[in-house]
Design brief:
By secondary structure, the chain is of the alpha/beta class. It contains 15 helices and 15 strands. Bound molecules: D-gluconic acid (GCO).
Length: 452
């Protein structure tokens, strides 16, 4: 039994395994009004009272726009092989489409060259949630035109950076964009209509499909894919019909609603709202555009979700929280879920994979001697990497791992209250301090594994 963790003395990774960490533009860059960047939906959302904890915003964030050299220095010190960052659409096409802002491209141009000089492979995400507000004013993702605007944006970026970026990720977690942004109102633009969410799903996927050939054209040597936040759902009472049904429905909306069109060219038959909207939403040929093979699927994994249906009204479902270890996000530490997820996608949606995000938020602060001792995060990484290795042994084609995140940063609706970094950021001074988990991770990279 190769996939039994007890058989390992050492957790060793394949040669050429890609090691790095991830960030996102709005969460780290700051400089929201510099060099011609226009307003994004997140600037607007943050400025709306009551939307973000403590009224925080990405206005300054980690000031990475000015400190990127220092941040590359950190990555070099940690021995990263790769770095996943995202590009801010409002810097590149301030009007959403049309005129290209060269100054915005200059920033990423310098960043990419700096990474290459440091021997770090750049992996760029084209869309990590900062839509130009002007496009939201014209309808945002529920509007089909936004998919065509995204294709224009992709071409502008690829023309400039296509020769040097190693990996391209079209979208980050389109589920969050659609459902947190347009149905639950927890994320920008803060709308609350399930129909808008489902329309967004289709246009996000369509935009991915439209971008794929453009990326191939300008970057034939690069690897291209999309990143999904796939979820692992468990029934609170295994075997209980109502709980099992809740799991099936949740799996449909968070996983199959994206995986099926991407890998099989169909929307799941059991997604009622998509089936209802499809006749007007999905035009002939759309699913063929969406169903183009990528070189990899990016997977973000943090936790599992345990669902229990209400005894009186089985349509009502709530999350339950089994005993265990929890992060400051209130997320259960459940490493085995990563193994379950990876082996499931390999079986049902065969591809190569990267873990494009995985990490933990903890209550970090420097101690008296200036160190940040973040044991929970170190244990979290160790346990998840062990499960990743186990999945590789079970046949999963896993090519790399990006920890979330390089730096503490703006955690969306939670503002600066939640810390996910391998590096601590003192927001008052912008001082960076590598946490113990960061040093541990660096050793893992150097040794391409670790002793159990
Ligand atoms: C995500 C987001 C990250 C979050 C992280 C922790 O892709 O969900 O990409 O931006 O910060 O997931 O919640």
């Amino acid at each position: 039994m190769t996939s039994d963790l007890n058989n390992y003395d050492r957790v060793e990774f394949p040669r050429d395994f890609v090691w790095g960490a991830a960030t996102a533009s709005y969460q780290i860059e700051g400089a929201t009004e510099e060099d011609g960047r226009s307003e994004s939906i997140w600037d607007r959302f943050c400025a709306t009272p009551g939307k973000v904890l403590n009224g925080d915003s990405g206005k300054v964030a980690d000031d990475h726009y000015h400190r990127w050299r220092e941040d590359i220095g950190l990555m070099r010190q940690l021995g990263f092989k790769a770095y996943r960052f995202s590009i801010a659409w409002p810097r590149i096409l301030p009007q959403g489409r049309g005129e290209v802002n060269q100054k915005g491209l200059d920033f990423y141009d310098r960043l990419v060259d700096g990474l290459l000089e440091a021997g770090i492979a750049p992996y760029a995400t084209l869309y990590h949630w900062d839509l130009p507000q002007v496009l939201q004013d014209q309808g945002g993702w529920p509007a089909r035109d936004t998919a065509y605007a995204y294709a224009e944006y992709t071409e502008a970026v690829l023309k400039r950076l296509g020769d040097r970026v190693k990996g391209w990720i079209t979208h980050n977690e389109p589920w969050c964009v659609a459902f947190l942004g347009y149905r639950d109102g927890h994320h920008a633009p803060g709308l609350t209509d399930p129909r808008l969410a489902v329309s967004s799903v289709h246009h996000l996927l369509l935009s991915h499909g439209l971008a794929m050939p453009i990326i191939r054209q300008y970057a034939p040597q690069a690897q291209v894919g999309i990143t999904l936040n796939l979820a692992v759902y468990h029934p609170a009472r295994p075997g209980n019909a109502a709980d099992e049904l809740a799991v099936k429905r949740a799996d449909c909306e968070q996983n199959r609603l994206f995986l099926d069109p991407l890998f099989k060219g169909v929307y799941p038959e059991d997604h009622a709202l998509m089936q209802e909207l499809a006749p007007t939403l999905v035009q002939p040929g759309d699913l063929e555009i969406i169903n183009v093979p990528g070189d990899f699927l990016g997977i973000n994994y943090y936790t599992r979700t345990v669902l229990q249906a209400d005894a009186q009204d089985p349509q009502k479902v709530r999350e339950v929280h089994p005993e265990g270890i929890y992060t400051t996000m209130g997320w259960e530490v459940y490493p085995e879920g990563l193994y379950q997820l990876l082996t499931r996608v390999q079986r049902e949606y065969p591809s190569h994979y990267y873990i494009t995000e995985n990490g933990a938020s903890t209550d970090d602060r420097p101690n008296a001697s200036g160190q940040v001792v973040d044991e929970l995060r170190q244990n979290y990484l160790r346990a998840h990497l062990s499960q990743a290795r186990r999945a590789i042994d079970a046949g999963v084609q896993l090519d790399g791992y990006f920890a979330w995140s390089l730096l503490d940063n703006f955690e969306w609706a939670w503002g600066y209250d939640r810390r996910f970094g391998l590096t601590y950021v003192d927001y008052a001074t912008q001082e960076r301090i590598i946490k113990n988990s960061g040093y541990w991770y660096s050793d893992v990279i150097k040794a391409n594994g670790f002793d159990k």
